[in-house]
Design brief:
alpha+beta
Length: 648
């Protein structure tokens, strides 16, 4: 009995504990449920009321203001400006085609614009605003606003657009922006959500494209209430984004404008480098184009005009154009021979007008030859035979190594489109490229900058800067980002004996300042401004034996595309070099007659910081120089906007 009684009491206690635990759990659950119900019914009542009314909250992106681009003096060269635009919302407009037809009675829209708008409308949700046209005149926008009752779904807005105040002067440097395309999106693995915004603009070429992530900034957000159909009811809150970074370039807008004007309508390119820091002071490609047309949406006629000319205005010849450097390359061959110890400055080579290799003759540009020439005279008079001779002795591998040391055949990492690497060929390259052995004739051609050798105007300017300074000067295009100075391109001392560099500088000095120099007519007579340089003329066609026997055709007697390229490289002042310059005029003819005079004007503009005075030129050339410079269509840099942020 006692045992049964004890078991009953134990069972009763267990049941009591379970009841207590279950009761406590139920009380806790009821408390949590009550708190949650209070949260739903009181704290979040407004939010769930929206849901009950079939409304929802959407997060929409706010495009950030794009970063501003400045020149080295603080002048704005790419800015944002307010512009009026007209947008359409398909669900409010009904039939988009009819809506656009009504709009065209008020605003002049071409068929291309209408078709593009219809394509955008079909691609996006019916409640997404699509831009029909931007950069509208106030009168047009006002007309749309007044006629709003008969234009459902079509509204005027104030937007933001890119503007390039210097137009063609910076087209190849800064580039331009344009709406995001399917091709742009296909190149990105994880595209920024900003790029999904209809007609959002991104950099397409130049600095705008290469520094896109910096310039674009970070998107802001706004929380909006929309109904089930997607219509906006109200804005709940907004978080502003981060504007893009401002970039200051190394280029001087006044010099850039002068260079572009001086090149004129020639198919040409010019580069000016600051020797001390490697800053690109000017980098021009001609002919140019107005990048603002691409921002607005270039017409078919305008685009065909740009692509239908052999002068290739859309190509940035300064960094994309790879040309045989011609006789400007002789400084490379000479330095390679001096460094290898195969010649001394006093050694002479006999030039009878050609060098015979087997059954073939390699001709000098001077048919009768130069006689005995030493190093300085060979540069001064640009004797080809001298370089045929020393080229064989030093060998192509040493020449190619020196070319790369001076910046040719090397990719210079500038934020510009399609920067070419050029070519400093050697034995290994030809074997890998063609599966053939290098020939002695290849060396002879390469020693005078012909054959396989290719260089861009940028590389030729770097070569001049390195010879002038004795340092591995590296070109720099971005001076600062949001006010933070970027690394200098001054470079370390070159692994070249200073005495050998001095001998090349002496030879380049004599090219311009000796009476027998090929560029003597382009000398500078102003005290402390003397220029040293090297002329170059590169062939683009083969000259047959029959033509040589009858007399080589003059460039002016040939079709434009068969004429020689004209080149000139320089540094100045001779005694304390500050700037290095390179000029290439496509199919311009002789370097001394065509490229050197342009280089002199540009060099003097860079040194003086203004249009060169007449006294910098020889007395018999002053009238002509002043007339030429006065006729240039120059822009006053003071008329450009400066400082601050241009935000719409």
């Amino acid at each position: 009995m006692k045992r049964s009684q004890r078991e009953a009491e134990e069972s009763s206690r267990r049941i009591g504990r379970r009841t207590l635990v279950l009761g406590g759990a139920q009380a806790l659950f009821a408390g949590v449920l009550a708190l949650r119900m209070r949260q739903l019914q009181v704290t979040q009542a407004d939010e769930f009321r929206l849901l009950a009314e079939e409304n929802r909250i959407n997060i929409r992106l706010i495009p950030p203001a794009r970063g501003i681009l400045y020149d080295r003096q603080g002048h704005v060269i790419a800015e944002n400006e307010q512009n009026y635009r007209i947008v359409i919302v398909r669900e409010d407009a009904g039939d988009p085609e009819q809506a656009l037809a009504r709009l065209t009675r008020l605003v002049r829209l071409d068929d291309e614009t209408v078709e593009r708008a219809l394509k955008e409308i079909r691609r996006h949700s019916p409640f997404v605003p699509v831009t029909i046209a931007d950069r509208m005149r106030w009168e047009e926008v006002a007309g749309v606003a007044v006629n709003a009752p008969v234009l459902p779904g079509i509204t005027p807005e104030v937007g933001q657009s890119r503007h390039y105040p210097m137009g063609p002067d910076f087209a190849h440097v800064v580039g331009y922006v344009g709406p995001v395309s399917d091709y742009d999106l296909s190149k990105l693995e994880d595209p920024d959500p900003l790029l999904q915004i209809p007609r959002f603009q991104i950099g397409k070429t130049g600095v705008e494209a290469k520094e896109e992530e910096l310039l674009r900034g970070k998107a802001g957000t706004r929380r909006i209430e929309v109904n089930a159909a997607g219509r906006v009811i109200r804005e709940l809150d907004r978080i502003d984004g981060q504007p893009g970074s401002d970039l200051q370039l190394t280029i001087d807008a006044g010099l850039q404008n002068f260079m572009q004007a001086r090149l004129g309508e020639e198919s040409a390119a010019a580069v000016v480098l600051d020797i001390e820091h490697g800053d690109v002071l000017g980098i021009a490609s001609s002919p140019s184009f107005d990048p603002n047309k691409f921002v607005q949406g270039i017409s078919v006629a305008d685009y065909r005009a740009l692509t239908g000319t052999p002068f290739r205005p859309l190509s940035n010849k300064a960094v994309q154009g790879a040309y045989p450097p011609g006789s400007t390359f002789k400084v490379v061959t000479a330095l390679a021979a001096l460094e290898a110890g195969v010649i001394t400055p006093e050694d002479t080579v006999w030039c009878p007008g050609y060098l015979k290799l087997g059954e073939r003759r390699f001709h000098c540009w001077r048919r009768g030859g130069h006689g005995h020439v030493n190093l300085t005279e060979s540069l001064q008079q640009s004797c080809d035979v001298y370089y045929y001779d020393i080229g064989q002795r030093v060998g192509i591998d040493n020449i190619a190594a020196m070319a790369r040391k001076l910046g040719i055949g090397v990719h210079h990492d500038l934020p510009m489109s399609a920067v070419a690497e050029g070519l400093a060929p050697d034995r290994a390259w030809k074997r890998a490229r063609y599966g053939q052995d290098w020939q002695v004739g290849d060396t002879l051609n390469a020693s005078i900058g012909q054959g396989y050798v290719l260089a861009t105007p940028l590389q030729l300017a770097v070569m001049s800067a390195r010879i002038a300074s004795g340092r591995a000067v590296t070109p720099r295009l971005v001076r600062s980002i949001d006010g933070v100075e970027q690394p200098s391109g001054a470079g370390e001392p070159l692994d070249i004996h200073p005495a050998n560099l001095a001998r090349i500088r002496k030879g380049m000095d004599s090219v311009v300042n000796s009476r027998r120099g090929t560029a003597h007519r382009s000398r500078v007579v102003a005290e402390g401004m003397a220029m040293a340089g090297k002329t170059g003329t590169s062939q683009v066609r083969n000259i047959t034996a029959a033509e040589r026997a009858a007399g080589v055709f003059r460039n002016e007697d040939l079709p434009w595309e068969r004429r020689d390229h004209a080149l000139f490289v320089a540094f100045a002042p001779v005694e304390a070099p500050k700037v290095a310059v390179a000029i290439v005029v496509e199919h311009g003819g002789g370097g001394s007659a065509v490229a050197a005079p342009i280089a002199r004007d540009i060099t003097l503009r860079a040194l003086y910081g203004r249009v060169p005075p007449g006294e910098a030129y020889p007395s018999d050339q002053r009238w002509e120089a002043e007339r030429r410079l006065n006729d240039l269509p120059l822009r006053d840099p003071g008329s450009l906007p400066s400082g601050g942020r241009s935000r719409a």
